[in-house]
């Protein structure tokens, strides 16, 4: 389940129950109106934050990691099957499936301008994708066996990714 708490104050606002397995990831839309949650049940749920209403469930598409585009129009989700799926938030339509990882995608992040998506996988790679057409721009690979988290710098010129063993790697990204 997912719980929403008010800050400051700590009042419980909503308890969101839909997932059949443990929740692995949550993300707010940029305007704070929608919460996405992903679970080990391979479902992604979209919730209205104001009243806790379930807007839609995207089943069978993975819920290892979720993130909204900076404009809030697209939701990206990494899956156990090594794929990343992009959905239109307004209606839940699947826009495209990004294929290339060979293991679970554990983290996804949009560049600040929303044009590039980074995905980090347990296959030890970070893929950079062109959001507009779903094309693969680049694969970042070092001698690591898994990538747990990816994040862009606020100006979009540096990509950080975390690996086991307390390592954080920084890559320069061409805007």
Structure description:
The protein has 175 residues and is mostly beta strands. 0% of the residues lie in helices and 53% in strands. It has strands at 2-5, 12-16, 23-28, 34-39, 44-48, 54-58, 65-68, 74-78, 83-88, 94-99, 105-110, 116-121, 125-130, 136-141, 149-152, 158-163, 167-172. It has a 4-stranded antiparallel beta sheet, with no helix packed on it.
Produce the secondary structure layout.
Layout: E1 2-5, E2 12-16, E3 23-28, E4 34-39, E5 44-48, E6 54-58, E7 65-68, E8 74-78, E9 83-88, E10 94-99, E11 105-110, E12 116-121, E13 125-130, E14 136-141, E15 149-152, E16 158-163, E17 167-172
Antiparallel strand pairs: 1-2, 3-4, 4-5, 5-6, 7-8, 8-9, 9-10, 11-12, 12-13, 13-14, 15-16, 16-17
Concise description?
Helices cover 0% and strands 53% of the residues. The chain has a single domain (2-172), classed as Methylamine Dehydrogenase, Chain H (7 Propeller).
Count of helical regions: 0
Q: Strand share of the residues?
A: over 45%
Task: Please mark out the parts with pLDDT under 50 across 5 or more consecutive residues, or reply none.
Answer: none
- Domains, number: 1
Cα separation of the termini = 38 Å
DSSP helix fraction: under 10%
Q: What sort of overall outline do the alpha carbons produce when their principal axes are compared?
A: globular
Count of beta strands: 17
> Could you say what the CATH topology is called?
Methylamine Dehydrogenase, Chain H
Main beta-sheet annotation: 4 strands, antiparallel
N-to-C SSE string, H for helix and E for strand: EEEEEEEEEEEEEEEEE
Which whole number gives the mean pLDDT?
A: 89
């Amino acid at each position: 389940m997912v719980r929403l708490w008010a800050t400051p104050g700590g009042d419980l606002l909503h308890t969101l129950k839909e997932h059949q397995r443990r929740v692995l990831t949550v993300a707010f839309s940029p305007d704070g109106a929608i919460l996405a949650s992903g679970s080990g049940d391979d479902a992604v749920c979209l919730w209205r934050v104001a009243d806790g209403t379930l807007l839609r469930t995207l089943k069978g598409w993975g819920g290892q990691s979720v993130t909204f585009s900076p404009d809030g129009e697209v939701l990206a989700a990494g899956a156990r099957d090594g794929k990343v799926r992009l959905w239109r938030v307004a209606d839940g339509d699947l826009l495209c499936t990004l294929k290339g990882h060979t293991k679970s995608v554990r983290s996804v992040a949009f560049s600040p301008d929303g044009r590039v998506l980074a995905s980090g996988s347990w296959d030890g790679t970070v893929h950079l994708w062109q959001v507009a057409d779903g094309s693969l721009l680049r694969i970042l690979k070092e001698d690591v066996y898994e990538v747990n988290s990816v994040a862009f710098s606020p100006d979009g010129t540096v990509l950080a990714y975390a690996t086991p063993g307390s390592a954080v790697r920084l890559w320069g990204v061409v805007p």
